[in-house]
Fold these 2 entries.
Entry 1:
Amino acid sequence: MLQELTERILATIAQAQRIPKERITLDSSFEELGIDSMDGVNILFALENEFDITIPDAEAKQIRNVREMVDGVIRLIQEKNAQKNQGAAPV
Amino acid sequence: MNRRVVITGIGVICGIGRNLASFRENLMAGRSGIRPISSTALGDIRFRRGAEVEDYNPAAYFDPRMSDFMDRFAQFAVIAAREATAQAGVVWTTELRENTAIVTGSCVGGQSSEDAGFRDIYHLGRNRVHPLTIPKTMANAGASHISMEFGITGPAYTVSTACSSSAHAIGQAFHMIRSGQVELALAGGSEAPFSYGILKAWEAMRVVSQDTCRPFSKDRTGMILGEGAAMFVLEPFEAALARGAGILGEIVGFGMSSDASHITQPSSEGAARAMRAALRDAEIAPEQVGYVNAHGTGTVANDLTETKAIRDVFGAHTERLPVSSTKSMHGHALGAAGALEASATVLGLHEGMLPPTVNFREADPECALDLIIQKARPAAPEYALSNSFAFGGLNAVLAFKSS
C-alpha cells in the first residue's frame, strides 16, 4: 500500500517536471532532476491536486529532496484519512 | 539635444499615505502600512496581510458617474496625477497639452474588475458580465483617464513589465523629455491587486509572507503585496527655472536590461547590468552614488541576488553605500512599486534624510550591505539609484540627483 502510494507520488512528480518516471528515485536530489524553486512550487501544486491535500508553506520550505517530499505527502495523506475516519462508528 | 530633466511634482497614494505629505511623514518615521487585508474577503487564503490604501473612498475623489467607468487602479493613477500636477503648478495651454506625454506602468491593470466579471459567470452562473469590464480591465486605462482628466493630447501609453513597470515608464518619459520629444510628462504607475482571484494566484506561488515584509533580514518570510500609485511631473530644467517652479529632484540616468535566464528566478548579472547602464546613462561613477533604494522584496531569491549585484557594481564603495527597502512599509505594489520607490528616493535626496528598512530583526551574512535599519538616516548624497527587478527578468534602474 505504502509502496503503491510512493509510486503514485513519484509518477506525479515526474509528470509535473516532464521527465521519465524511471529517472526519479527516492534518493534523487532536486539538482539532479533540474528542479528549481518555481518547479518545486509547480510540483507541490500537482501533488495537492492529485491527492486532495494542502501542503503548508512552512513545510514546503523544509523540503530539500524527493524523499522528504514523498514522506511529507504520505504523512499529509495519512492525516487526511485519519481525520476522515474520526467519528466513524467503530467496526 | 540632451536636456536636463527635473521633477516638479509628485503625487502619491498608497498604504502609508493618501497624499505626498502623509507618505513622506510615515516613510521617514518608519511606519509600516502593512495591515490585515480588508478591501476583499480573503476566504481560505493563507496570507492575511497587505499594504492597502487605508479607508479608501472613491466618492471623496470622483463623481460616481466617473468612478463607475474606472477600476480602482485607474482611480489611483488619476488621484496621483492630480496631486503631482497641482504641486507642479502646471498651467495648461493647448500647445502644452499637445506637447505633454503620459507614460504609466501597471502589472495587473484592472484584473480586479475582470475577476469580478469572471466570478459572475463561472461561479454565480450569470450569463453576462458588466459591459465596462473591458475598458476597466485594460492596463492603459490609467493613462487614458489621466489624458481625459487634463485634456492631454500628446503621446500616451502604458508599459507592463511586472514589478518594473513604473520604473520603465518613468525612464521612458525621462528620455522623451531629455531628447526634446515632449515638453512635459506625467509618468509613474498604479496598481490595485487586492481581489480574490489575483490573491489566490499569488498564494499559489508561495512567495507571500504570512508574517510581514522583512527585506534583507535573515528571518525574512517573503513579500507583502501593496497597492497605490505614484506619478511624477517631469519637465526640462530650463522650463522649470523659467516658470519659477519648485524643483524636487532631477533624473539623470535610466538603465534597462533583461536577464534572459528564468521566468521567476532573478539573476544578479541582469540586475548589475541595469545598474551599470543607469550609471553610464547618467555619466556618473559608482563612487558618486550615496544611496540605493533597493528592489528589496523580502524574498530569499531577491535579497541575495540584489546584494550580490550591488556588491559587483559598487565594489569596495558598497561599504559606504546606504541601502534600504521601503517595501517594508508600502508593500510590493507591483506595477506601482518603481514609482513609489522613486518617490521615496527623490524625497530622501531632497530632504537629506534616507528612508529606512523597517521590520528588520536579524543581520544576514549573505546580505552584507550598509542597511538603513528601522530609522531614517540623515545624509545628503548627491546621487541615488532606485532599483526595480521584475518577474520575467526585466530590470529597470533610475538614477537621481538631489536638488
Entry 2:
Amino acid sequence: MTALGRTAARIASVRLVRTTAALLLAITLLAVVGPLFSPHGAIDTGFDRILAPPGLAGGHWFGTDNLGRDLFVRTLEGTRTTLLVATVASIVSLLIGVVYGTIAGYVGGRVDAVMMRVVDTLYALPFIFLVILLMVAFERNFLLIFVAIGAVNWLDMARIVRGQTLALKEKEFIEAARLLGVPTRRVLLRHVAPNLLGVVLVYLTLTIPQAVLVESFLSFLGLGIQEPATSLGTLVANGVGVLEQAPWVLLIPSLFLFVILLLFNFLGDGLRDAFDVRLATEERQ
Amino acid sequence: MSLLVVDSLSVAYGSRPVLHDISFSLDRGESLGLVGLSGSGKTQTALAILGLLPDDADVRGRVRFEETDLLEADTATLLRLRGQRIAMVFQDPSLALNPYLTIGQQLGAILKTHRLAPADAVRDRVIAALARVGLPDPGEQVDRYPHQLSGGMRQRTMIAAALLGEPDILIADEPTTALDVTVQAEILDLLDEIRGDTALLLITHDLGIVAGRCERMLVIDAGRVVETDRTAGLFKAPRMPLTRSLLADALTLSEEPPPPGDGDILLSADRLGVSYPVSRRRELVAVRDQSFAIREGETLAIVGESGSGKSSLARAVLGLVPPASGRVLFRDEPLPATLDARPLALKRDLSLVFQDPPGSLSPSMRVSDILAEPLRVHSPALGKAERRERVEAVAASVGLEPSLLDRYPHQLSGGQAQRVAVARAIVLKPKLLVCDEAVAALDGRTRRRILDLLQAVQAETGLAMLFITHDIAVAQSIAHRVAVMYLGRIVEIGATRDVFGRPRHPYTRALIDAVPLPDPLAPGGVATLSGELPSALEPPAGCAFQTRCPRVEERCRDVTPQLEPVGGSRVACLRAKELDLGRPGQGRAG
C-alpha cells in the first residue's frame, strides 16, 4: 500500500517518534530476551537470599523479593506481561472501536443515535464493580483482563472515530466518490479509512499506556494477574509490603512502569506532530 | 517624502526564496494596488511590512515608515505602530474576529490598548466607528457576536476596527474575495469613502478592483516586481508580457456570450423545491418550486448571491439532497430523488466539479488512482493496461502532464487540482456536467484556463453543463443561457446575450453593475443595492426583492411576480415591461 508507505515515511521523519519508538522497542526486546541471560528462573525461591539488595553478587542484578526470587527476571517478565496485555487489549479495542465508530458515523441518523446511546450506557457502568463481578462470576484468568480492559477502551475509540467519520462524510471528496457511484464499502475503505489513520494511530498510543495503567491497577488490587505469573502491577503491590526493609522491590518495577508510560505518551505527542500535515511539510522543506 | 518606502525587500524560508528585491513607495493618502497571481508573494509583502512574518523567515532589505525601519524595530515599537499607525484588513473576516467576544469588546480592546479613548468613552467611540462604516443599528450591533453578523457586516466591522486609530496606512489583503459581488462593491466604496488621509495598499488578484480603485498599481510575479505605474497608464500600455497576459486573462463583460443552441431537452426541473429543516416547526426554503431546462450540448449558468439557493438547486439535481417538491426529468424520465436510489448508469451520465479543488480529491490517493476509480466502478472488466491508457488519455485531454499522475493532491497547485477534478468528472463521458462555483477559488489566469478547458471539452464531447456561479463575468463567458436566482426563485432566465445584454430585472441590472471591470475608464463595481439579502427563513412578502429594489413600488409589497416572457427572456418582475434598465456599458438609467 503506497499510502501506508508514505505515512510510515512521514512518521519516521519526526525525531521524537524515532527516539521513543526505538526506546520502547529496546525495552520490549529486553523484556523478551533479558531473562535468558540471568542465571535465575522467575519462580526460583530460596530462604538464603530473601530481600538481597541489587548488585552483581550472586547474579541478582536487581536484588530479590521477599521470597528470594530474582527481581531482574521477575521485573522483565512483568514488563512483558504488562506490555502484552496492554497492547493486545488496545488492538482489540481499536478493531471494535474503529468498525463501530465508522459505521455509526457513516450511516448516521437513527442508527448512529442508537449505537452511540449503547456506548453512553456502557460508559455509565461502574468499571471496577464490573471487574469484581466478572472475577467473582468466572474463574480468574488472563482472558478476563483483556475483556475488562477492552470493554472500556473501545468506547473512547468508537466516539473519536465516529466524530472523525462524521466530519469526513461532509467532505467534498466523499461526495464526489458517491456521485461517481463508488460503492459504500469502497468509499469506507479507500476514502474514509486512510484519513482516519492518523487520529487512530495517535489515539492508540495514548490507549496503550492507559491499558498499562488499568492492568497494573487491577493487579495491584489483586484482581488482575495472579502469582506465580506476574505483571508490573503485581510486582508493585508486592513491593509495597516490604517497602521499609527493601525499597528496591517497589522502586525497580515502579521505575519500569513509569518509563514505559512516559515513552508512550511522548510517542503519542510525536505522532500527533507527524500527522499534522502543516508541521510535517515544514519539516521536510 | 514618501510615507512608506520598501527598499529591496527579500524574504526567504531556508533555501526557498519568496520575495526578491521588492521596492516601492507609498505616499500619504495614496492608493496603491498590489496585483499578482496566487502565490506571487502579495501577502508575504504585506506581512513583512507589518513585521508579522514567522520567525524562520530570512528577511533582508529595508522597510522605512517615516523615520522608523520596520525590519529593525523592536517588538514594543511594532506593537505601537500596528493597529494605530499601520492597520490591516484580512481576507476572511470570519477568521479575523474572535468568536467568543462581542464586536464591542474587540473594538474596545484596540482603543484601550493604544489608549485612544478614556475608559468611559470607549463604548461610545466604538458605536461611532460602527456607524461610520454603515452598520445599521450600531448601538445594538456593538453587543453582538461575530456569528450574528453577515459576511459583509463582519468585513465592515473589520474596517471599523482597522480605522479606529486613524492609521496612516491601511493594508487590505483581498478584503472582498470572500464576499458576494454586490457586497464587494459596497465594501470597496466604503474603503474609498472613509479612509480620508489614510494611504491604502490594496492587495488583490482581481484587476477589475484595481482598475476602479487605485491610483497606482504594482504588478508582482514569483516574488519580483514586474511593473509599476499609474493605473490608467498601465492598463492602456502595459510594457511587460506578464502584465499583458494578466490583462488578457481578465474576464470582461464585452465578450460575446455563446449563442443558445436548439438541441433536445436533456434535463429539466419541474417545480423543483428544496428545503432544510431548521427546527421541529420551521424549515428553510432554499428553492421554491422552480422549473428550468437544459438542452443537449448547452451550458446553463445559474447566478446569484450566496444564499440565493443556486447550490441547493444543483444538489437536488444531482440527488445529494432530496427535493421537497417537484421532480427532475432526465431525457423525459423522472430521476429518483436520492442518490442511493439512482441506478449506476445514471451516475455515469451526471457528474460534478466542486468549488474547492483540493478538497474534492481524496488526500490519500494518487492522481492516477483518483482518475482510475470511476473506471474501476463503471467498467470493472477493463484490464489494468487499458485502464491506465484511459487515465492517461483523459489526463492529456485536460492538459495534465503525465508526471503529475503520480502525485498526491496536496502536491498540486489549485489549477492542477481543478484539472484533475475536471478529468475525473469527464472520464466516464457524462451527458451533464454540473460545475458548482468551479472556478471561484482560482486566480484570473487559472480561471480563464479552466473555463477554456471546459468549453473545449464541451465542443468535443457535446456534454451539457449546469454552471453555478456568483460571477457574472464567468457566466457571460461560458453560458449559452443564464438563470438569475434571488432568494430561492429564478427572477430572470433566457439566452445570455439577452439577459446580460438587456437586463429586464432590477436585480440582474444590479449584479451586472457590481462587477468590477479591468478598465480604468469604465471600472464598473458600482453598488446599487442597499442592505443585505433577507433571511430565507423570513422572506419578504410580495416580491422577494422588494426590500432592496431601487425601483420598488407599492404593489411590489403585495403581489409576488411570476416568470413571464419579456423580450427574449422570461422575467419575474411586475415592472419588467415598463422599466428601461439600459445596456451595460451605457451607464445606469436613472
